[in-house]
Write a structure and sequence with these properties.
252 residues; alpha/beta; TIM Barrel; eight-stranded parallel barrel; 9 helices; globular; Pyrv_kinase-like_dom_sf; lyase
Length: 252
C-alpha cells in the first residue's frame, strides 16, 4: 500500500514527526503518512544529527510513535546505523518488526562533524547487498535513498545526482530523496531522468505543492523545519510570559 501511495495523482506529503504527540496531531489533521526526522529526534534527546544516538534508542522511539497512530510510518535511518550491509539489514528488519513500512537511507556520512558524500560505487554495492539480504529474510520495505549532492552543494549537483540515481535504481532503491533541490529546471530534469518517484523537502523557495505536482514530484517531506518552528513558537510564548509577568498570552 505504501509503495502505491507514490503513484497517486497527488504527491504524497509526509508529515515529519519526532514523538507521539506530533504523530497524533499529524493523523488528526489528515496527513496520510508520517516519517521520523532524525534531526528532530536527535535534538529532542540533546544530540546533534548524524547517528549520535544509538539504534536501540531510535527503535524504542519508533515503536511508541508507530503504536500511537494508524498511519504508515517511514523512518530516517541516516546511514543505516551499521558498518556492514548485514548490520544495516538487521536494523531495517528490526524496524519492520515494529510496523515500519519504509526507510530513508542517505549516501553521505558525518565524519568529525563534517558531512561528506559516500563513494558512489561503495554505496551502490552496500545498497544492493542490503536489498538482497532483506529479500532473503522475506522483508518488504520501501527504500527511499537520500542523495545529498544538492544538500552539500557539490560541484554540478544535478549531474552528480542523476548519475547516482541511475546507479541506485539498479541497486534496489524504490524512491529517491534529494534534500535542498529547489530549482524548477533541476526538479524537472531529475524527474525526467528516472522512473523512480522523486522526493523533495521543505526549503525556502521550494515551488508550491501544485507546481511540484505539475513537475512530476511524487513525495514531499518536511525535514526538521516543523520541529524548529514549534521550538520558535515555544520560545516566543515563554518570552511573552517573562516580559508580561502574566500567563494571559497563553489564552488569547
Amino acid at each position: 500500500m505504501f509503495k502505491s501511495m507514490h503513484r497517486a495523482e497527488e504527491p504524497l506529503v509526509i508529515c515529519n514527526v519526532w514523538d507521539v504527540p506530533s504523530a497524533k496531531i499529524a493523523e488528526e489533521v489528515g496527513f496520510l503518512a508520517i516519517g521520523t526526522s532524525s534531526a528532530a529526534i536527535s535534538s529532542n534527546l540533546g544530540k546533534d544529527d548524524g547517528e549520535n544516538i544509538n539504534f536501540n534508542d531510535l527503535l524504542s522511539i519508533v515503536k511508541v510513535i508507530g503504536g500511537s497512530t494508524n498511519l504508515p510510518l517511514t523512518v530516517d535511518i541516516e546511514s543505516g546505523f551499521g558498518d556492514t550491509p548485514e548490520h544495516i539489514a538487521t536494523n531495517i528488519i528490526e524496524l519492520v518488526k515494529v510496523g515500519v513500512v519504509g526507510i530513508n537511507i542517505e549516501d553521505s556520512v558525518v565524519v568529525k562533524g563534517h558531512r561528506q558524500l559516500c563513494d558512489v560505487a561503495q554505496f551502490e554495492k552496500t545498497l544492493k547487498q542490503v536489498r538482497l539480504l532483506l529479500a532473503e529474510a522475506d522483508t518488504e520495505v520501501f527504500i527511499n535513498v537520500r542523495s545529498d549532492a544538492f544538500l552539500l552543494n557539490v560541484s554540478e549537483p544535478l549531474v552528480e545526482s542523476i548519475e547516482r540515481i541511475h546507479r541506485y535504481q539498479q541497486s534496489g532503491a524504490d524512491g529517491i530523496f534529494l534534500p535542498c533541490i529547489r530549482g524548477v529546471n533541476d526538479i524537472e530534469t531529475v524527474v525526467a531522468s528516472t522512473s523512480l518517484p522523486i522526493n523533495v523537502m521543505c526549503v525556502p523557495e521550494l515551488p508550491s505543492f501544485q507546481e511540484l505536482k505539475t513537475l512530476g514530484v511524487k513525495r514531499i517531506s518536511m525535514g526538521n523545519f516543523v520541529y524548529e518552528a514549534m521550538l520558535a513558537s515555544l520560545s516566543s510564548s515563554l518570552m511573552s510570559i517573562k516580559r508580561e509577568r502574566s500567563f494571559q498570552t497563553l489564552f488569547l
